[in-house]
């Protein structure tokens, strides 16, 4: 009998990672598809399974600041301030990479993205494995990130060796990314740590302008199969719903999701709800956007990007 590929066995996850396998791992943001970051072949397999271009670098997940320093050549004072304020947690910090960091992880860049996650299950894996875990979100490239162990298996099926089940992700959206390899530091991706949280620690942080420095972040991304329509008010949502219902063959009509009332809670189930709509074969979802503050900024970013995938 084959062993179940989903479960709560931390040591099994560690053994698989040690022998060069790839494992779905829970974090507080979304599930990651992890490989031992020092094993270039295992990292290459993550790219293959995800269908991700090799020049889109991965985040290396570490236990703490001491571990992060081993992956970086120039752990800057700004990186240190941010890490001490927000780690473990949903913040990824980009710094110059140490010479031994493999090109497979960084796509040949001079920098490396580092994050210390807070979910106890991946922390237990990191503590037992030592070193770092390179992990992108555990979805196929361009699709919606997984927020449960079941989502990972639904997406990757037999291509993943094991999925460590840590329950649904508490935050539900990918981490905030801050590039500390440039001055002033730049926020490349909004996420669970807000811009104002970061500015409280670093007063010189700029928002990234012009071509994105994080590859893959300007394209349509995070996209479900159904068409996503962002709107600013419920009033607009209702009138758009009426227009779409009149012209669309989907007899159940468009779904309206209201992200404006409780954005933190909305974020935690947003990807699961988009997946449910896809599974039900729904054509259109209208999302009433939250204010552009706190996690609302991250929701707006993901929903607007998802709408670029509309066919
Ligand atoms: O919450 C998260 O960040 C999740 C969990 C699993 O930790 N991970 C995640 O990974 O969202 P991924 O690979 O889906 O997104 C990482 C982003 C990509 O857009 C990548 O291009 C960017 O980080 N990135 C990674 N290393 C970089 C670097 N050295 N310079 C610029 N961008 C980088
Ligand atoms: Mg991703």
Description:
- With 311 residues, the protein is an alpha/beta fold.
- The chain has helices at 10-18, 40-50, 65-71, 77-86, 103-106, 120-129, 149-156, 195-201, 234-247, 263-279, 295-308; strands at 6-7, 23-25, 32-36, 59-61, 91-96, 111-115, 133-135, 162-164, 176-179, 186-189, 206-207, 227-231, 255-258, 284-288.
- The strands form two sheets. It has an eleven-stranded mixed sheet, sandwiched between helices. The protein has a three-stranded parallel sheet with strand order 12-14-13, with helices on both faces.
- The chain is globular.
- The model has no long low-confidence stretch (mean pLDDT 93).
- Threonylcarbamoyladenylate binds at residues 27, 29-30, 32, 56-59, 90, 92, 94, 106, 109, 111-113, 115, 135-137, 174-175, 177, 213-217.
